[in-house]
Design goal:
270 residues, single chain, 0% strand, mainly alpha, 13 helices, elongated, Helix Hairpins
Length: 270
């Protein structure tokens, strides 16, 4: 048995005639609408692809330019007014007059060399700690580099990103710390000069008014040794006394110089 649409139509509505294709027309109309929408989406996709290939590959440059513009719009982490205010506050503290511009510059270099990244400049080191801090700081301390501005730079080299807190809250401590650092640096330079002087004196030791025996006896006495001490004993005593009297460890620079002179004299005469 087969299906006869005519019988089904007449059986469903015997007194009226039913149009089977009425729903089909609606479906076709909806299908046309979907087709047009799909075609429109395809055109938009093609347009986006075309723009992607036709635009120059400078997206990264555009992003960097946008980020640079954002940084220019945002306020700097350190301003020139802050630097001037900090420098003025430091100049009113006790011990300010003992600070020297040249020594402050040397201190900044020394602190950079002793940091975890000795190959970086102060600006690069601060930018690594806080992006933009180093660039803003050096932009705020434009030439001429005065003593006040250099002291602010030295504070940042010493305290890092916490410098703003110390400069705002306790400028006296900043000056005191810079003063101590300068004294240590001066003492270190004096020790090195004493070492060079002792080397020169040891070369001429015995050629002046002292006899060789007297100079050796005096050198042994400085090292706390007796006549006939071996070279190993001299070296051992020298190491102990150097550690004990080193100026960086609180010892006397004069005593340290005498120990070096005595050691050089004894080693040369071995």
């Amino acid at each position: 048995m087969g299906f006869d649409p005519r019988r089904w139509s007449s059986a469903a509505k015997p007194h009226g005639r039913q149009t089977v294709t009425s729903n089909v027309d609606a479906l076709l109309a909806e299908n046309d609408s979907l087709r047009r929408e799909v075609l429109q989406l395809k055109r938009q996709l093609d347009l986006l692809r075309q723009r992607q290939w036709t635009q120059p590959r400078s997206t990264q440059q555009q992003r960097s330019q946008e980020s640079r513009q954002e940084r220019e719009q945002t306020p700097p982490t350190v301003s020139a007014d802050q630097v001037e205010r900090w420098g003025e506050a430091l100049s009113k503290q006790q011990g300010w007059s003992s600070l020297r511009l040249r020594e402050l510059e040397c201190l900044i270099d020394a602190l950079n060399r002793s940091s975890f990244h000795p190959h970086l400049t102060l600006q690069q080191r601060l930018d690594r700690l806080m992006p933009g801090l180093g660039a803003d700081l050096f932009a705020a301390t434009l030439n001429p580099l005065t003593k006040k501005r250099c002291a602010v730079l030295a504070a940042f080299a010493l305290y890092g990103i916490r410098s703003r807190e110390w400069l705002d809250e306790d400028p006296q401590r900043v000056v005191f710390e810079l003063q101590n650092r300068q004294k240590s640096a001066r003492q270190g330079r004096r020790t090195r000069s004493d070492q060079r002087a002792s080397d020169r004196n040891s070369e001429s030791y015995g050629r002046g008014g002292h006899s060789s025996k007297d100079s050796r006896r005096e050198a042994l006495h400085v090292l706390g040794l007796k006549h006939g001490a071996s070279q190993d004993s001299i070296k051992k005593s020298y190491r102990q006394l150097v550690k004990q009297h080193h100026p960086d460890l609180g010892g006397s620079a004069e005593e340290f110089r005498k120990i070096n002179e005595a050691y050089q004299q004894l080693i040369m005469k071995q």
